[in-house]
Design brief:
With 123 residues, the chain is an all-alpha fold. The chain is 54% helix and 0% strand. The longest helix is centred in the C-terminal third of the chain and has 15 residues. It is elongated, with a radius of gyration of 23 Å.
Length: 123
């Protein structure tokens, strides 16, 4: 049977996350799934209790490591934001929009491209 084994200290650390105000409801559910697995509940029992797919519970149980509780947090979809590029584009747009004229999106994109900042079109 697939389940998580926790020491008393690890169980206390996971249980403390129940009261973490920064966790979303889905993340709190993950905390409870880990604790129920450690209490001996089977994957089908946990899935039925949370009205979710057994594969979801299995994925969490396989991914969980007591030393790294970050696996209980939601992962942001997509790549990590490029903060340097965001700052570069924001600075250039702020400078351009401060001019006394009206811009279209195409004009802004063309001017930014002339400055070495290429933007892609969203479709």
């Amino acid at each position: 049977m697939l389940h998580i084994t926790l020491t008393a200290t690890q169980r206390d650390a996971v249980a403390a996350l129940r009261r973490d105000p920064s966790l979303s409801p889905a993340e709190r559910d993950r905390v409870e799934m880990v604790l129920l697995s450690a209490a001996g509940w089977s994957v089908p029992q946990i899935a039925a209790h949370f009205h979710c797919c057994q594969a979801t519970v299995r994925r969490l149980v396989h991914r969980f490591t007591p030393a790294d509780l970050t696996c209980l947090h939601r992962r942001q979809p997509g790549p990590t934001p490029d903060l340097g590029r965001r700052a570069q584009v924001t600075q250039a747009l702020t400078r351009l929009l401060a001019q006394d004229r009206t811009w279209t999106a195409a004009q802004l994109a063309e001017t930014l491209e002339d400055e070495g900042i290429a933007l892609s079109a969203r479709q």
